[in-house]
Amino acid sequence: MAAAIAAADKWRPGLCLPRSKKSGRGRSCIVVTSSVSPIPTVLVAGAGGRTGRLVFDKLKQRTQEFSARGLVRSVESKQKINGGDDVFIGDITKPESLSDAFAGGIDALVILTSAVPKIKPGFDPSKGGRPEFYFEDGAFPEQVDWLGQKTQIDTAKSAGVKQIVLVGSMGGTDDNHPLNSLGNGKILIWKRKAEEYLSESGIPYTIIRAGGLLDKEGGVRELLVGRNDELLKTDTKSLPRSDVAEVCIQALLFEEAKNKAFDLASKPEGEGTATRDFKSLFSQVSTKF
């Protein structure tokens, strides 16, 4: 009997299995009212980045809930995170290079890709002054944060992805924000354009506009959600990367997180109560974009 049950791929209501010889003739019928849902497959784009790797590692630790895949841009990035067959290499601006990562079906996509400004050579911090920044060819915000994210969203839609979690940045309501001047990249403007595109894509989404990222311990602070950069006007406008990563994962678990966009920060460590109830956190959000 047990062997017959183990051999069955799925239990169905009214499934009848043959009795063992010791039990006599006839069949035993098992009435099953529910079946086990398959574990969702989640692709983390930008898994080689500091926050992306945290999301990827957290998913891999929760094997009973998720099947994790990573997307990185180079062999070096894959090696850096000790990636195996579950990590794919692709150029987010080229749809054809993403096919392997999406092959076989993806349930959710977490986007953590971002252009990264670099300091121009020759800057000497000992002499004071401010460094100048630039973006490498092919890695400007317009190419990465707009066209690259658009490509990922379009690919996900074609692949039937059921939810996209997109991590952006606070400050997108201010065209004159200092981050936009770095390398003249207008990075927040392009991020905001991608966020709007996602919100209009028809795919269930969660847009997380993170505050200043801290390399601090996660899970010990009270998290705060806001809208339209209101948190930037307060003293609570930063949070640990690990907390951003955890919110990405929690957004995959609660319906209350879907089709919402919000700013995310935290109280200083030691103030308030560490956030544990993410359903309530997401329920505080009413903004769609």
From TrEMBL:
<dbReference type="GO" id="GO:0016491">
    <property type="term" value="F:oxidoreductase activity"/>
</dbReference>
<feature type="domain" description="NAD(P)-binding">
    <location>
        <begin position="46"/>
        <end position="252"/>
    </location>
</feature>
<dbReference type="InterPro" id="IPR044163">
    <property type="entry name" value="SARED1-like"/>
</dbReference>
<protein>
    <recommendedName>
        <fullName>NAD(P)-binding domain-containing protein</fullName>
    </recommendedName>
</protein>
<dbReference type="Pfam" id="PF13460">
    <property type="entry name" value="NAD_binding_10"/>
</dbReference>
<dbReference type="InterPro" id="IPR016040">
    <property type="entry name" value="NAD(P)-bd_dom"/>
</dbReference>
<comment type="similarity">
    <text>Belongs to the NAD(P)-dependent epimerase/dehydratase family.</text>
</comment>
<dbReference type="InterPro" id="IPR036291">
    <property type="entry name" value="NAD(P)-bd_dom_sf"/>
</dbReference>
